[in-house]
Each structure stands twice: as C-alpha cells, then as structure tokens.
Write a structure and sequence with these properties.
The chain is of the alpha/beta class. The protein is 30% helix and 17% strand.
C-alpha cells in the first residue's frame, strides 16, 4: 500500500458516503513567475485524517488477485479510510468502490479513455520522463507521479532519475508532480524544494506515528 502526501492536490478530508470521495483540484501557475523551488515551503504534513491532511492512499494491483477480490478490498478500504483512496490502474474498481480516482501506469489506457469512464474523479499517470509527463498533461491528467527519483528496492539496479530531472518536470508541466522512489522524510523535503507538489511512499508512512 502506497501513501501520498500532497497538500496542494488533495482537499481536506471529511465524512463521506460511498461514491463521494473528493475530486481533483487543479492548480494554475504563471510560467513567468519565480521557480517553484524558491517559493515558501509547504506546510508540514498533518496527521492522516485531520482537515488539510493532503494525504491519500493508493491500492496496488497484485497480478495474481482477481478483480472480485480487488473490488472487495477497495470497498473495504474506501469505507474505512479517513483519506481519499486512489486505485492503481483499474478504473472499473474505482467506480465499483466509490474511490476518489485512479493512477494509471505509464503503459496503461489513455487518460482520455479513463476520463470518459470516471468523469471528474482524480486521474493520475505514473511517468518516467519529461516527455511522458507532457503527454499525460496534454491528455488531461490531474497529476503525474514521477520516478523513481532515488534508488529503491522496487527498481533494483536503477540509480534513480534524480532531483534535477524531478525539478525539470515540475517546472515544465502545470499539473502537480508527485515524486516516488526511495523517498524518506529528508528526501521528501528535498523533493518539495525541487518543485514537487508532494510525494508517494510506502515505508515512510508506515513508520509515521500519525494514525
């Protein structure tokens, strides 16, 4: 299970019923303004489940799990979660569970096709290059997840794309860019300073004492 910290992307959490998880918040940025890395630092993360937390959880897509099992797990997760739930790849599971949106792997269906299914729900795209980030933005993605930024056990043998590449993507596209890959608390701050709107991680949030 991966968790996302992105105060500029996700609205405050609130009690909800199935099918009413918050939708996307788009941001606008003046390309002629100062670099995002020079802006005031974002607020410190709030504990998950408090107003303004800016956190979400993403449900992975294990290759050996059936669609029915994924649906049951997603419905349970949406009902129990105090933060928005984003499903990996499966737009049909998003609709069945009432999740907040989907994150599409780079080689998955187009954002345009996912939008036809999901309407105004959040739609993100995992990307590994500036070119792919620009394509995702043009296709209508609400955000992109860029990485791996740092070396990570999930991508053995990769040195990571680095903070410079992350900053280039964040400065070029106008949708939020979230960093992923080897992110810990210190590196999360570095990603934000490089221009990322947030970051996604697994181990970092498991170690977080917040509920």
């Amino acid at each position: 299970m991966a968790f996302i910290h992105a105060p500029g992307l996700l609205g405050p959490t609130r009690p909800r019923t199935r099918g009413t998880q918050p939708g996307p918040r788009r941001r606008r940025r003046d390309r002629g303004g100062p670099p995002r890395g020079g802006r005031e630092p974002p607020p410190a993360p709030h504990p998950a489940g408090t107003p303004g937390a800016g956190r979400a959880t993403t449900q992975p897509r294990p290759p050996t799990v059936t669609a029915r099992a994924l649906e049951a797990n997603a419905i349970e997760l949406v009902a129990a979660s105090a933060v928005p739930v984003v499903i990996s790849s499966r737009s049909d599971i998003v609709l069945a569970s009432g999740a907040a949106g989907v994150n599409l792997p780079e080689r998955d269906i187009t954002v345009h096709d996912a939008r036809a299914l999901l309407g105004q729900r959040l739609i993100g795209r995992s990307v590994h290059s500036l070119k792919s980030a620009l394509e995702a933005e043009q296709d209508g993605a609400d955000f992109v997840i860029f990485g791996p930024v740092f070396p990570t056990p999930t991508h053995p043998g990769s040195a990571g794309l680095g903070l410079i590449a992350l900053g280039e993507v964040a400065q070029t596209v106008t949708i939020p860019v979230l960093a992923i890959g080897g992110v810990d608390a210190e590196r999360g701050a570095e990603c934000l300073a490089a221009g990322a709107a947030g970051y996604a991680a697994i181990r970092l949030f498991r170690e977080d004492p917040a509920p």
